[in-house]
Amino acid sequence: GLRWRKARRSSGGGGSGGGNDCVEIAWLDRSGARAVRDHKLREASPVFAMSRSNWLALRAAALDGHLDLG
What's the pTM? Predict the structure, then answer.
């Protein structure tokens, strides 16, 4: 199975939702493809898989604040 880890920016209240908006990330293969899921739902969560380039674009948008809801 995949080895999931909680995203650093969403752990311990670091995210905009006070820790309730946590996501987990897993590496899919050596190419850098990633999978993302909701930490609260774990195995019940939908899994979003993406290529390395799409992951990097999503990560950059999140770090730049373009995905903030508040």
Answer: 0.73
